[in-house]
Amino acid sequence: MCPVSEILCSWLFPIGAFVLGACVGSFLNVVILRTPRGESVVRPGSRCAACGEPLRAHDNLPLVGWLLRFGRARCCGARISPRYPFVELLTALLFLAVWLSFSPTKAGVGMLFLSLLIVAGFIDLDHGIIPDWLTIGGACLGLVLSLLVPELHGLVGEAGAFGGAGEAFFFSADHVRGFLGGAQGLLIGSGVLLWIALVAELCLKKEAMGFGDVKFVGMIGAFCGWEGAVFSIFAGAILGTLGIGLLPIFKGRAALLPQAVPFGPMLAAAATLYFLWAESWVKRMLAGFAEALGA
After folding, report:
1. Percentage of the chain surpassing pLDDT 90?
2. Does residue 121 lie within any of the structural domains?
3. How far is the C-alpha of 130 from the C-alpha of 121, rounded, in Å?
4. Greater pLDDT, 146 or 287
5. Helices 13-34, 104-127: inter-axial angle, 10-degree rounding
6. Which of 32, 136, 253, 279 is deepest in the core (most CB within 10 A)?
7. How far apart, in whole angstroms, are the C-alpha atoms of residue 197 and residue 193?
């Protein structure tokens, strides 16, 4: 590899992934704020939440704009929520992590998947719902990408029974296996959580989980397979338990605890952990467990 290529791979591309993530995070803030209200994410342009004054272009610079204004609006001096730069920074860091962890093709799919997780988690946190366009639409998108990018499920997508290497485009056996892996993840993930919700409702005599969470786990399974969906359910429950236990420490008083803690953000965090770091560990553990049962 020539020195220029080495520089691009080692510095420019990761920096580009971070900057792209910050810009996408700025757009995700708009999606999180407007879509639950049924508003367009394109028009009108960004305005001050306090006085309604249109924001200048340089005020909308991801991360930088908030820092330069010390977290206050230029037009009226109103305080701007730190969650806006937090979402931008979170998205930038996740885009950087996914770029450094995978091939460019899988990284591109991962950036899209993680963006869906961020939007779903924050909308659920704010409104207690996860819109169908995220869950059902995301599940359909996950199935399509599982077919087109079998690497998403650990498959190489080389020529097989369904195509030839000399053709411009083909579906190999691995492409079909990738699609089946996504479909399996969708059905098993949503099915497992649905049964957990039904049993919990029977025991508690009240609704224990929204159906949006069931569809959300199905979407996660379409991207991550059944292992990722099941991991997200149980790891999300652990994260939720830890979060509830630590919340009084940060809030100071138990009276400030919310009456209901949405499960969506926990599922999104667990799915992120699985996609970026835990997939190989989970699959090795399951393979060892299956081998022990077989012995």
Report:
1. 53
2. no
3. 8
4. 146
5. 30
6. 32
7. 6
What's the confidence (pLDDT) of residue 6?
A: 67
Reference 19, options 83, 59, 64; nearest CA is: 64
Residue 122 lies in a domain: no
Helices (H), ranges, 76-172? 83-101, 104-127, 132-148
Q: Are 74 and 163 within one domain?
A: no
Q: Which of 51, 84, 101 is the last residue of a domain?
A: 101
200-250 pLDDT, tens digit per residue, is 888 877 776 778 999 999 999 999 999 999 999 999 999 988 877 666 665
Give a yes or no: residue 146 inside a domain.
yes
Residue-averaged pLDDT of the chain: 84
The per-residue pLDDT for range 114-156, each reduced to its tens digit, is 999 999 999 999 999 999 999 999 999 999 999 999 999 988 7
Cβ partners under 8 Å of residue 139, min gap 6:
186, 215, 218, 219, 221, 222
C-beta of residue 260 within 8 angstroms of C-beta of residue 206: no
Q: Give dist(CA 10, CA 29) in Å, integer.
A: 29
State whether 76 and 163 are in the same domain.
Answer: no
| Same domain (yes/no): 160, 290 | yes
Domain count, the chain: 2
Contacts with 211 (C-beta within 8 Å, 6 or more apart), sequence order: 197
Same domain, 147 and 288: yes
pTM: 0.88
| Number of Cβ within a 10 Å radius of residue 168 | 4
CA-CA distance, 267 to 245, in Å (whole number)?
17
Determine the Cα–Cα distance for residues 91 and 219; give it in Å rounded to an integer: 19
Same domain, 161 and 292: yes
Give me the helices (H) in the chain, please: 3-7, 13-34, 64-68, 83-101, 104-127, 132-148, 173-204, 211-251, 264-273, 279-294
